[in-house]
Write a structure and sequence with these properties.
Four Helix Bundle (Hemerythrin (Met), subunit A); mainly alpha; 192 residues; 4% strand; 8 helices
Length: 192
């Protein structure tokens, strides 16, 4: 489904990366804190499941934000968070991979956006939150080079806008010897 399209390849890689970490969460870690100061592990995974659930109605069905309203507010994980993640990730992946999906215009909360922009935004969010989840559960924190480079290119032009919109924390100054991953995380308000 993603053959030949670099954006869809990155999207699949980001979904898989986050999914691997979701499946690594132990039963006693769901209430553990994350680098996202207001979120536990469960809150973080719930946020990402909710994001994936928005994709089919917005992109495939042409629904508006107002029509979806509070459909995915609250707990969307239920009693099996990993299964909820798997189902939402599968639906999201299939929606973006459908013919013409990336060329569609999507009505997001801040206005109309190209399907490619929406997909790239989710790739970046999944990549950074994969690090957040890894840090919270003690998993491998290293981000794959391709996803790291993609996310860095995506956010470099507008980190202050992301912080102002409340999507990420305000940038912090990276140490002088910081590698690419550290610079990206600092740009998005993390202190690795």
């Amino acid at each position: 489904m993603t053959a030949g399209n670099p954006l869809l390849t990155r999207h699949t890689e980001a979904l898989d990366l986050f999914g691997d970490r979701v499946h690594a969460v132990r039963d006693d870690q769901w209430n553990a804190p994350t680098p996202c100061t207001d979120w536990s592990v469960r809150d973080l995974v719930n946020h990402l499941v909710g994001e994936q659930l928005w994709v089919p109605p917005l992109l495939r069905d042409g629904a508006t934000v107002e029509e979806i309203a509070d459909t995915y507010d609250g707990d969307v994980l239920g009693s099996d968070p990993a299964a909820s993640w798997d189902a939402s990730a599968r639906a999201c992946r299939e929606t973006f991979a459908a013919p013409g999906a990336l060329e569609r215009v999507v009505p997001l909360s801040y206005g109309l956006a190209a399907g490619t922009f929406y997909c790239a935004q989710l790739v970046t969010d999944l990549t950074v939150h994969s690090w957040d989840l890894a840090r919270a559960i003690g998993a491998d924190e290293r981000l794959p080079d391709e996803l790291l480079a993609f996310a860095a290119r995506e956010v470099a032009p507008y980190p202050a806008d992301l912080a102002q919109a409340g999507l990420f924390a305000a940038p912090v100054e990276p140490p002088p010897e910081a590698d690419g991953q550290t610079r990206l995380l600092c740009l998005l308000g993390r202190e690795p």
